[in-house]
Specification:
Layout lengths: L4 H4 L13 H7 L2 H10 L14 H11 L2 H11 L4 H12 L13 H14 L3 H14 L5 H4 L8 H12 L5 H10 L5 H14 L5 H9 L6 H13 L6 H8 L6 H10 L11 H11 L1 H6 L1
Length: 294
């Protein structure tokens, strides 16, 4: 997802897994070191996810510490009159204490109240973006109606944040309806994430959902096509077959594409010894008639 992924994957390591460093960070934290980390969140390019050792590293460390002291400090920043501090305060709270082994945000109820309070009067699109992303992480369904108005915002980054948040409630009928519309957004990243939310994260199934996924099989963005195939494969919809086989011929094949092949082949898990060619052959053998009719 590029730069937009930075906000909601800040705790993830290079392998895509949450860095489970909460306890060691807590042990090392002192009031002075916490103050210094907050200071460092204001140093460097906050919008550059590749700034190693930059402000997002400090944000991640504060989230890993996850103590009441960090919460209180971040909560105060979320109410600060300086936009930079408000933004960082919300971002820190959004994934406070979250790790691979601790999927829930620490002090989630208090954080939810702060985010709602902030969003009520906030005009800065970057802070609105952070609030919407925070709603997704907090997983409180009461946030859905608060997010919905932003799905049509003129700022694509705000729409993307709304799309991410709605995908965290992908089985909520209100979120499903919004995600259906967002699969047609002019922004590639938004279409991609809406298709992922609707097709992969959601367990809902309807003619409208399937038709929306079929529409994205011809999307100009390959990531979106892959998510459409994954969503249709999950639902056993054979209209994914031609695009699925095309994607299996690509030099790099995503896990979602392989998983779609497994769904259509009724395999309970990915066979680590199979190559893309093995999946292609199995699909041709299983669905020779259907593919010939295309």
């Amino acid at each position: 997802m590029g730069e937009r992924a930075r906000v909601f994957l800040s705790l993830m390591g290079p392998d895509g897994l949450f860095c489970d460093v909460r306890y060691s960070m807590k042990q090392q934290a002192t009031p002075e070191s916490i103050d210094e980390l907050f200071r460092l969140t204001l140093v460097g390019d906050y919008d550059n996810e590749d700034d190693e050792g930059g402000p997002w590293e400090a944000v991640s460390k504060l989230q890993a510490i996850g103590t009441r002291e960090v919460f209180d400090h971040a909560a105060a920043w979320a109410r600060n009159n300086k936009p930079a501090k408000r933004r960082r305060g919300i971002d820190i709270l959004a994934q406070l204490g979250k790790s691979e082994t601790q999927p829930q945000v620490t002090f989630a109820a208090e954080t939810y109240a702060i985010v709602v309070e902030t969003l009520e009067t906030e005009l800065d699109p970057q802070i609105i973006d952070s609030c919407l992303v925070a709603f997704g992480h907090l997983e409180n369904p009461a946030a859905v109606p608060l997010v919905l108005p932003y799905r049509k915002n003129e700022d694509p980054d705000v729409r993307f944040a709304a799309c991410f948040a709605l995908s965290c409630f992908a089985d909520d009928p209100r979120a499903v309806e919004a995600l259906l519309a967002l699969t047609e957004d002019p922004d590639d990243d938004i279409r991609d994430w809406a298709t992922f939310g609707l097709g992969v994260k959601s367990n809902a199934d309807s003619e409208a959902i399937r038709e929306a996924l079929v529409e994205r099989l011809d999307d100009e963005n390959q990531d979106t096509r892959e998510e459409a195939v994954a969503g249709l494969g999950k639902r056993g919809d054979l209209r994914a077959l031609p695009t699925l086989i095309d994607l299996l011929h690509e030099e790099e094949v995503s896990f979602g594409v392989v998983e779609a092949a497994c769904h259509l082949l009724e395999m309970t898990e990915v066979d680590e010894e199979w190559t893309a060619d093995d999946y292609i052959q199995a699909l041709h053998e299983r669905y020779a008639g259907e593919l010939e009719a295309e």
